Amino acid sequence: MIRFEHVTKRYGDGTTAVDDLSFEVAEGELVTLVGPSGCGKTTTMKMVNRLIEPTSGRILVDGEDIAEADPVTLRRRIGYVIQQVGLFPHKTVLENTSTVPHLLGWQRKKGRERAAELLDLVGLDPSVYGDRYPDQLSGGQRQRVGVARALAADPPVLLMDEPFGAVDPVVREHLQTEFLRLQSQVRKTVLFVTHDIEEAVRLGDRIAVYGSGRIEQFDTPATVLGAPATPYVADFVGADRGLKRLSVTPIEPGDLEQPPVVHLDDPLSKAAAKLAAEGARWAVVLDDAERLHGWIPAEAADGERGTVRDHARRMEAWLPVGAPLKQAFSTMLQHDAGWIAVLDEDRFLGVLTPARLHEALRRSIDADAGGIARGEVQLQTVADV
Ligand SMILES: Nc1ncnc2c1ncn2[C@@H]1O[C@H](COP(=O)(O)OP(=O)(O)OP(=O)(O)O)[C@@H](O)[C@H]1O
């Protein structure tokens, strides 16, 4: 857990980079700091591993005032990933990744095993990449090594300063997806700096929107997008925040429609009767194990002999429950589908239609209509603990 208590940083030339900052990152939470260039994000972050000392206020990591910690020991407990990665050029990927375990005095073998494990976890096969040197990697691969290296000694806290800033947008999105997957496994307490609101919204459990040296709003991405606390935040998150909101609103079971369901081995006459009884134009088709097989249109069942299997069509457009609405929208477009199936593991839950997608978006906006004001949030986070 990282906690800022009335932290101010004034540089020698009189610049106030951070002004009376109080907020907290809970254990296992990922907080993104987002704001325009020069608003104090990097200064905030570097105060956590004591690369910069605050002028006043306290920072606690796991309940300990870091001003009293030895900076070198502190840094070994805190993973740090930066944009320029800073890999050692004369060391291999495996050696780079095992740097901190090595410094911590781990046995060489154990350190290398751990490094190999981490490389695997960030999507780099250690048997392919382990012996390469940094200049034999792409930008995206170097970033992954940076993340693996920061995680190698299993630090509880991770600081990430624009870690994906130097790669092109496609690679960047890929790295973000992988990092989310990784974070769901390792659940570190993460402070993540970015100037990109899309990235902040996508990755953060909560986001802190910085004005000049101050937090303008500190809340979940959905609330920041749905109920910006100030005109500044509204301006920063942009006019297309409805669209951005699609990427942070998950599909919930209550959003789904329940079309008629038939099974592969059902006689067509039974399927036709069911469709007629429900006045539906199509039905979802499941197999014996209740897994999604596809769908069947009413006209294919009407007056025909045989079983549903003979006329069922495969359905490729499906998503797991909890996937963001944005993904649902893009899946609909990709398959040119008027609906998509939503599954819980293998189990069919229902279908999402464009109308239901719109309702889900409204639901999420309404849920945030009474968004919490910025002052309350800051007081709450400090007073809660
Ligand atoms: N060593 C320093 N001496 C004086 N002023 C500094 C120093 N380092 C940073 N600043 C100033 O403090 C303010 C905050 O800088 P900081 O690097 O924290 O911003 P940032 O939000 O991370 O910006 P960016 O997105 O461009 O990296 C800026 O006005 C910057 O010019």
List keywords for this structure.
single chain, 385 residues, alpha/beta, Rossmann fold, CBS-domain, four-stranded antiparallel beta sheet, 18 helices, binds adenosine-5'-triphosphate, P-loop_NTPase, ABC-type quaternary ammonium compound transporting activity, Gly-betaine_transp_ATP-bd, nucleotide-binding
Global structural class: alpha/beta
Q: Alpha-carbon distance between the termini?
A: 11 Å
Q: Average pLDDT value? A: 86
Rg from Cα = 25 Å
Beta-strand share of residues: 15-25%
Parts with pLDDT < 50 across at least 5 consecutive residues: 370-385
CATH superfamily of the largest domain: P-loop containing nucleotide triphosphate hydrolases
What does the main sheet amount to?
Answer: 6 strands, mixed
CATH architecture classification name of the largest domain: 3-Layer(aba) Sandwich
Counting copies of identical and different chains, the oligomeric state is single chain
Kindly identify the CATH topology of the largest domain. Rossmann fold
* Alpha plus pi helix count: 18
Bound molecules: adenosine-5'-triphosphate
In total, the number of strands is: 17
Descriptive report:
By secondary structure, the protein is an alpha/beta fold. The protein has 2 domains: 2-249 and 370-383, P-loop containing nucleotide triphosphate hydrolases (Rossmann fold, 3-Layer(aba) Sandwich), CATH 3.40.50.300; 253-364, CBS-domain (Roll), CATH 3.10.580. The chain is 40% helix and 23% strand. The chain has 18 helices and 17 strands. The chain has helices at residues 41-48, 71-76, 93-97, 99-103, 108-121, 126-129, 139-151, 169-186, 197-203, 221-226, 231-237, 241-246, 268-278, 298-301, 308-311, 325-335, 354-367, 374-383; strands spanning 2-10, 16-25, 30-34, 56-61, 64-65, 78-82, 157-161, 189-194, 206-210, 215-219, 261-263, 282-286, 292-297, 313-314, 318-320, 340-344, 347-352. The strands form 4 sheets. Strands 6-7-8-3-9-10 form a 6-stranded mixed β-sheet, sandwiched between helices. A 4-stranded antiparallel β-sheet has the order 2-1-4-5, sandwiched between helices. A 4-stranded mixed β-sheet has the order 11-12-13-14. Strand 1 (2-10) and strand 2 form a beta hairpin. The termini are close together. The relative contact order is 0.11. Adenosine-5'-triphosphate binds at residues 11, 13, 15, 17, 35, 37-43, 195.
